[in-house]
């Protein structure tokens, strides 16, 4: 690897352009990778009276697929009506003694090469850092930052141990294992990858150079295409840009966990023990698509107990860290990161980099290791904006999972109860028919990149025309015959669920394959504003039964065989108020969040034919299906809350 850095040498940079009195920029610096492909970068440097300062300084890098010249929607602070420009963000850090570099990923915007989502980011990131440390304006210390794809690029390069890496701020991304979170989940395919491919194909090099191709893409009705799945070569709305269709179909169809899924860029799990010994801040939110990735990265990197780490989990959607709501649920003024966890998102990052790249004595290392927003505790009324006032507050903890949380096991009962009581010895199983032509519609949850087909957040689990796939019956999803709902009795006192969620089912099917899904819900009692209550989704998950012996060993189901399967919805943190119920919904589809199992055993992503599966869930004493949670009493939660006051 060292030879790569040496061959790159010291760059002859383009002329400087003024950004502000104290900042100048080299635009479109073309940095050569090991294969000769050149990636475009903008380099922001401090200046004085129109002259760039020649001091060697620490460098902050963001590698993005979304355009180094484009505003990042996440760069919006409290009180702002639109995100800051890249130049404005860079100027903040440059004004505090840094050089800032934004770089376009391979095959995107100003960079050369073909785009293959995720897989080039490890080597390209390594080569970029190796180039930076050779430049006279770099002091050899490099920090990385970025949201989503720009978090994936960070984790990818870090797994290769590049020179110069000194600190990281990974926001809502950085694949621990893309097979279990981000591309696939529980064996199923995450269809946000399909909407992402379509939306971003419109920004591809091919589309920018061919107006007719762009018009063709924009003329596609992607919602209608979701009713024509699975897609295939030349039979998708992405067919106009073959390189995007190719990688999408490859991910969709590659259903066995093998070496393909262990490539740099999509699998950090095997690199935790060799990961650079640098401080890492991890951020996400309960309605983000990367909750599992964030916690797996935290737990994996925390094996090195000397590594400085920060973990922050808000209540928001993907990257919306300063919003007060998600979907139809309002969390209040305490929800934003800005003004609660830190003065601002800009200042959080600056202080992190100052501490670990400049050795500043700013007490960052004395702050709580984990800061978590616990949803719930609000009035339950409808706000003037028409949202449920769910409320919530930040807590601090020394680690994750929260050490003081206790495991609670709730069993499924044949009368629909969910309780700590052991099930009856001879309880009858639940039987339902799962028709893949009529899947259970997705109504919110932990989602991103789904527009214009679906969106994430907290929503009442009730069919409405605004949600894709709903029949507009206005009936709750629990009214469907293919949805099994289990509820606790109304809680006699407040109780918080804070931690991982694990659903253990005994189940069977009459076909060669099927799925089982699980959804955790906070059920509000009827009220003046919500006469039938409000069933608020907290988290959900899925499991494809062909993988019951391991994701690396798929095999057909045996009709009637009772299988022991585990569904792992994302972790959550929610206060169930007195009078509320906890509900667990079990079914076999959650579309369009996940692809629909055709129940035929067809290879992944190729099942055009479909069959109805007769599925069974058992709840007798010997086959006791259950959900495992970690809970805190109101008093225990209050004790933790005092730490962050």
Automatic annotation (TrEMBL):
Pfam families per record: Peptidase_S15 (PF02129), PepX_C (PF08530)
Keywords, in A-Z order: Hydrolase
Ranges where the Xaa-Pro dipeptidyl-peptidase C-terminal domain occurs: 350-628
Protein name, as recorded: CocE/NonD family hydrolase
Molecular functions (GO terms): hydrolase activity
NCBIfam families listed in its UniProt record: CocE_NonD
SMART domains per record: PepX_C
Keyword Cell membrane applies: no
Organism encoding this protein: Aminobacter carboxidus
């Amino acid at each position: 690897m060292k030879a790569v850095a040496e061959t790159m040498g010291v760059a002859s940079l383009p002329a400087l352009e003024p950004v502000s009195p104290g900042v100048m920029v080299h635009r479109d610096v073309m940095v050569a990778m090991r294969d000769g492909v050149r990636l475009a970068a903008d380099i922001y440097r401090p200046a004085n009276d129109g002259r760039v300062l020649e001091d060697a300084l620490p460098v902050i890098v963001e590698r993005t697929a979304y355009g180094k010249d484009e505003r990042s929607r996440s760069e919006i602070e409290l009180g702002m009506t639109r995100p800051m420009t890249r130049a404005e963000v860079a100027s903040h850090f440059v004004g505090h003694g840094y050089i800032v570099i934004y770089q376009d990923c391979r095959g995107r915007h100003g960079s050369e090469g073909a785009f293959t989502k995720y897989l080039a980011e490890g080597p390209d990131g390594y080569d970029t850092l190796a180039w930076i440390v050779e430049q006279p304006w770099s002091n050899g210390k490099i920090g990385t930052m970025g949201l989503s794809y720009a978090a994936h690029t960070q984790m990818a390069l870090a797994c290769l141990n590049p020179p110069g890496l000194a600190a990281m701020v990974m926001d809502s991304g950085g694949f621990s294992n893309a097979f279990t979170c981000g591309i696939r989940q529980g064996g199923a395919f995450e269809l946000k990858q399909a909407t992402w491919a379509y939306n971003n194909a419109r920004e591809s090099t091919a589309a920018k150079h061919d107006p007719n191709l762009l018009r063709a893409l924009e003329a596609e009705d992607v919602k209608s295409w979701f009713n024509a799945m699975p897609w295939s070569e030349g039979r998708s709305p992405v067919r106009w840009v073959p390189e995007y269709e190719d990688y999408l179909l490859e991910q969709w169809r590659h259903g066995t966990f093998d070496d393909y899924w262990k490539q740099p860029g999509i699998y950090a799990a095997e690199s935790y023990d060799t990961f650079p010994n640098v401080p890492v801040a991890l951020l996400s939110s309960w309605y983000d698509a990367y909750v599992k990735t964030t916690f797996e990265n935290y737990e994996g990197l925390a094996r090195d107990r000397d590594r400085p780490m920060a973990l922050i989990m808000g209540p928001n959607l993907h990257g919306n860290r300063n919003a007060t709501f998600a979907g139809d649920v309002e969390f209040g003024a305490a929800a934003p990161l800005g003004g609660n966890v830190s003065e601002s998102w800009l200042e959080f990052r600056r202080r992190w980099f100052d501490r670990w790249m400049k050795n500043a004595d700013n007490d960052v290392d004395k702050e709580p290791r984990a800061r978590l927003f616990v949803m719930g505790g609000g009035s339950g009324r409808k706000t003037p904006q028409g949202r449920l006032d769910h409320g919530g507050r930040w807590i601090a903890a020394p680690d994750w999972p929260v050490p003081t949380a206790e495991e609670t096991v709730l069993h499924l009962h044949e009368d629909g109860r969910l309780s700590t009581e052991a099930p009856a010895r001879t309880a009858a199983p639940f039987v339902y028919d799962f028709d893949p032509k009529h899947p259970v519609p997705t109504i919110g949850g932990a989602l991103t990149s789904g527009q214009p087909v679906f969106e994430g957040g907290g929503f009442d689990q009730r069919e409405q025309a605004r949600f894709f796939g709903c029949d507009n019956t206005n009936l709750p999803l629990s009214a469907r015959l293919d949805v099994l709902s289990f509820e606790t009795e109304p809680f006699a006192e407040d109780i918080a669920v804070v931690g991982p969620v694990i659903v253990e089912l005994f189940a069977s099917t009459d076909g060669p394959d099927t799925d089982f899904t699980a959804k955790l819900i906070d059920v509000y009692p009827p009220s003046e504003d919500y006469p039938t209550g409000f069933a608020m989704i907290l988290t959900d998950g899925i499991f494809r039964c062909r993988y019951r012996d391991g994701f690396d060993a798929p095999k057909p189901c045996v009709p009637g065989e009772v299988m022991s399967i585990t569904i792992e919805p994302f972790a959550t943190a929610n206060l169930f108020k007195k009078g509320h119920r906890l509900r667990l919904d079990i079914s076999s589809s959650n579309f369009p969040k996940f692809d629909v199992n055709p129940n035929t055993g067809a290879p992944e992503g190729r099942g055009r034919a479909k069959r109805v599966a007769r599925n069974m869930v058992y709840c007798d004493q010997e086959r006791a299906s259950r959900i495992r949670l970690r809970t805190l009493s109101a008093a225990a939660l209050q004790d933790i809350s005092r730490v962050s006051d």
